[in-house]
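pasting Nrap protein domain-containing protein for the record, 141 residues
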Amino acid sequence: QAARRPVLHSLVHSYATRVATFGPTARLAKRWLAGHMVAAHFPEELVDLLVAAAFQRSSHVVAGKLFYPSSLSAGFLAFLKLLATFDFQGEPLLVDLNGEGSAELKRAAGRAFEAMREQEPRGGPALAVYVPGDAAYGWDS
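structre below
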């Protein structure tokens, strides 16, 4: 994963410049995980991707414009909702930070996820997050 970090960092940085509340929400999510003493199980990159996924799932379109959570509390609640309701054991979480996610990339992530679940003796990591262009590897915890 270390070789892929610079690319992921640039994707997350680009996303953070487009969505003003993303950065503060990601920092709050990391503090919340640390406060519950589980931060060691969630690499920083993974938390950034989880927050971005929460923002994408809670966004809405009005008059052709895309709106993301506009406050820190709304973004943090979207993050908590994602953690509480997403089926991490049954499906991969695909995070499309810059709109490159085609149907083929989604299928590739699904195939990689299924292969990982079948190959690992205990089903693999608790959760797997995929970004377009990196669907064969994923970020996990």
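The longest helix spans residues 103-119.
The mean pLDDT is 85.
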